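Give me the fold.
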Amino acid sequence: MKGFVFHGIGQSAWEDVPDPALKEPTDAIVRVDAVTICGTDLHILKGDVPEVRPGTVLGHEAVGEIVETGGDVWSVRPGERVLLSCISACGRCRYCRHGSYGQCRGGGGWILGHLIDGTQAEYVRVPYADLSVHPLPGTLPSSEAVLFADVFPTAYEVGVLNGRVRPGDTVAVVGAGPVGLAAIAAARLFAPERIIAVDLAPDRLEAARRIGADAVADAREAPRQLVDDLTDGLGADVAVEAVGVAESFELCTRMVRPGGHVANVGVHGGPATLHLEDLWNRNLTITTGLVDTRSTPTLLPMAAAGRLPTGHLVTHTFPLSHMAEAYDVFARAAETGALKVVLGVEQHEVAVRAA
């Protein structure tokens, strides 16, 4: 089969790789029908995730069909269309028993495309399949369903729930990429008074308006002043950092009100300064987190019912074999306008619509 293989910093290729096989009775083999690229994959290629060894197939988000299961898999069977979660969960360790699947100590957590071969291939082995794949509603197109492998659970759990968004809040989302846009959509479920999106790219700010932001601000043009103007100088109740650079994190800490919440979602490849000389007396709560995907069973039916706007997030589609081209388009988002790119979806979308 073919897969997209990491060969070292800045080096990758779509090439022949061994077919996956069952290793444990809790495994499943899935034929990949739709897959997407994450900003974390770009971090891997830049060398920001040194645990990823050369020779690893990248990717941790996909929709596909079960083709084989181990003897201890009970929740899915061959022929079922499923979502592959970005997080694998053993279900037995202390963290999994508390629903903190991202911190699994039983061999799970974020392993696909990180510690083992991932989803950017024609087939993939999924460990702990009972808790790590989700049967999909037949009406949910693959190009939308794949957003619930990582993007929406991350935005919902690490951004909105960790940030404790409540009715009447002012929410500032710094970074209007895929996760930031999903955070805007998810925050709207909690009836905030207003949502303010901050980004450098005009097309992303326009996408933020379409998905539900009440106000937008260019990151270069005093976004903190806009937040102050809209809140009578109080500041945002919740600031969601969805970029992963020091400047955006520090901006979030400056624009949030005393007693507010900063929810860091972005993947940081370098240090950020925590200005405790300014923050020590402001009663702030700052959270970080790796998604657990415990919310996936809640989000999928909402998506199927049209309660979460997903159509604006997918901007480019490609055949699965055009992985290198898709990476190039995604990496040059400022030029291409890319938000989420989805590969391999064309033939399957026809089947879903026909059903």
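The chain has a mean pLDDT of 94.
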